[in-house]
Amino acid sequence: MLYLIWFMAIEYEATFSPVDKEAMRSRLKACGAILRRPEYLQTRVTFNLPTTHPNPHAWVRVRNEGDKITLSFKKVDGRNIDNQHEICLIVSDFDRAVDFLSALGCQRKSYQESKRELWQLLGTDITLDTWPWLETFVEIEGPNEPSVKQASRQLGFDYNQAKFCAVTDLYCAKYNLSVDIINNQTPLIVFAGPNPFIKG
Fold this sequence. Notes:
alpha+beta, 22% helix, 40% strand
């Protein structure tokens, strides 16, 4: 049986990249942050929306987060913190959620893995995210922009250097590749195996 629990959140989220994971853990502890989940593996399947959908900056994702499975509509249509949007469902079955999106006409893009560690500070969620072939980065998410700014300052980040983007943009910047190559021509982003972004 597939059941759905729905919730919606505006993503007030800032990304700082790259960071040294061990140094960042020390900074978090020094600031009084609380470790909520030690590093764990996440797996996901991402989809383009059907070609009839009017927004090219949106996509959908099924993600196994270990303690729950989520199905999300994501949209990042600008470079400001309020240009990030998410509608998230908690679902009971990863494979059936993937089949559901396929049946709707969504086009499968990629199977992806990442590692995440969750901390909390000043009412914000702070994650240390590690993706294949990328340096670890930090995401700070809060209920509003002032909370994100406050936590960023507490951790010693320059908020003017924050990024408001999807992980695709980090791959594009590191490897000087187009969004199309990352999003539509890389069916596997996993820790095992060779780096597909380095040729030769």
